[in-house]
Amino acid sequence: MPAIQIALALCGVPSLSHGAEGVPTKQGVTPGAVFRALGIPTDLPPLQAGQFLDQHGVGFVSAEQFCPQWLSLLPMRNEFGLRTALNSVEKLFNPADAPFQLTGFFHGEYLERLRLQQTGSRQSWIVQGEEGSIEMPAGRATHIFAEQEADDWILDTAQVGLTTRERVTAAEVTPAAHAAVNLQALHGQDSPATQQVALTAGAILTLLKHTPSLAAGYALIKNKLQSEGERKLKELRS
Length: 238
What we know:
By secondary structure, the chain is an alpha/beta fold.
């Protein structure tokens, strides 16, 4: 969810995400589409996207802008109609040469193969999150794979009192409906969306050693969302 990036920016942690539209096989609602529905630009060339990131702490760059040759493969991929190795490879792109990389995968047979393929220049992690995303759900353990197995982290949501499995759902499979879910978090509402954003962003702060524990990270993010979430969204839209 874009709200995760915005929450991190409120804590002084900049982040850049990337993506493309119409990628087979799911072709679902993408982060870029949700950013646009929230009124945040997604069509900036790499240089301008970097400037936006420097200014606001949040950035998104589309494959169309930073890797048009890759996007040209979409018609062929649609002909296959199945997942290919390209679905995994594109998640490993690091257009900003970021020092830290966090990537979402789900299928267990991929995880060990990809553990050492991450492209963060200092450190990388794979999250076995919701539907292959980095989003960490309440009420169940999330496995975070480090570069070395000894550094793996099994996220225990009971540490922050989230013992009940509450799914984050949008009213429709549309960018506007997903944006509405993000707004619940950015408005600091008491909702499953806010819990998931705070849990995920809090865990990232802990991985980066910006907070000493998951509980501290979770509490900080919730406080930031309630006090500054709406202000930050207005800043990103201006």
